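Report of the visiting student (M.T.), summer placement. My assignment was to run the structure pipeline on a short list of targets and document each run. The first record concerns Leucyl aminopeptidase family protein.
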Amino acid sequence: MSDKNALIQPDRGQKAVSLHLVDKDGLEKFLTGLSVPQRAAIAANRFTAAANDLAVIPDGDGWAAVLGVANAAALSTWCMAKLAEKLPAGTYRRVGGEPGPAVLGWILGQYSFDRYLSEPEEEGPRILLSGEPATIDAFTAEAEAVMLVRDLVNTPAEDMGPGQLEAEAEALHKAYRAEIRVTRGDMLEREFPMVHAVGRAAGRSHAPRLIELEWGDPSHPRVAIVGKGVCFDSGGLDVKPSAGMLLMKKDMGGAAHALALARLVMAANLPVRLHVLIPAVENAISGNSFRPGDVLRSRAGISVEIGNTDAEGRLILGDALTRAGEGADGTRPELVIDFATLTGAARVAVGPDLPALFARDDATAEALLAAGRAADDPCWRLPLHEGYREYLKSEVADINNAGSSGFAGASTAALFLDRFLPADIDWAHFDTFAWRPAARPGRPKGGEALGLRAAWHMLRGRYA
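After the run finished, the structure tokens were exported:
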């Protein structure tokens, strides 16, 4: 993979291939400014200025590229991503304006996951020049965070177990001088019993753990970020069919989002006291697997009847959210955000592109939705409807981990999590897919950050 830090460089007048971005309203004016050979090249390419239409035209002794965009006056994040995928290695400059937010798509259009290829394609970088140097670092940091999510999610479970998630947290600890605590073994069973119960069947090689990072000035507002780290989900004794397991390496996508968001917060030195929590497990099958009908105790003291061992993510998040709500240094968090690949019901409701957002506070929800719209990382709010709590009733315990009806699966899962945080703490929950089933410009098939940049822009707007 190319050095992404080098893909956007300040424009100092260096030699570069010209890039023309043209929308349908501006096509006629653009054509009038071209030479006869250039217009002939446009015609030969059947260029209509539809989004992602691409034409190559002669330009002096060299050539230039023309790309169709939806709106040349207001570029989107992804409008230049196809150029970054298709053009040959070289240096490029937009004619008639700056690339703006398209810088992010340009970088992400050159992402590839080639860790397991014996002969990966070696392509030189496509460098884009920008006359807005102040924005280069910000967009590069966001791109690196997205690529971190993609890399972690794309890595198979054998190489991305609880220990590897701990190693990623260790890297943040060292890079940003954060404090790190890892709870495992007997102490995990005592302090985070649901995390232990879900992960114990994986054995010593993929032993469960609760990973915590703390960073920042304790006098700053306390913010907790929690990520579901199920590194592989067999379904447990309620075993998934083989087709249902094919993508379960991505079930730690919530943890990947949490780590990436934490890195953005730390790198920007946002004035918060950050608390990151990742319950890391593998939901495996063995003689000591937790069972349907078992009643688990939790860190919060809430007893949980197991209606389905494949609803394990909410169990480990319950313990982690309880820990997040306790705070430290006498201070509880004023905001908790969690990310989880939690329910198929959310995908049925909003599809693979939109993370389902749940929030207690309307203002927080709207801030996240607005940040997502502005950053081309859209989310969709679903309800924490009080009437659905009855679906989680148990006859033998305080709550059941699986809904008693086939309705509102994403909402009932969110309501389960809601039980484990004090009611007066501002909380937002992203039920994200963390995967892209079909490629789009700048967004290859595979692991994907969905909701990450919405959360980051909201946090930056709230605390910067």
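The mean pLDDT is 96. The chain has two domains: 4-131, 142-463. I thank the supervising group for their guidance throughout the placement.
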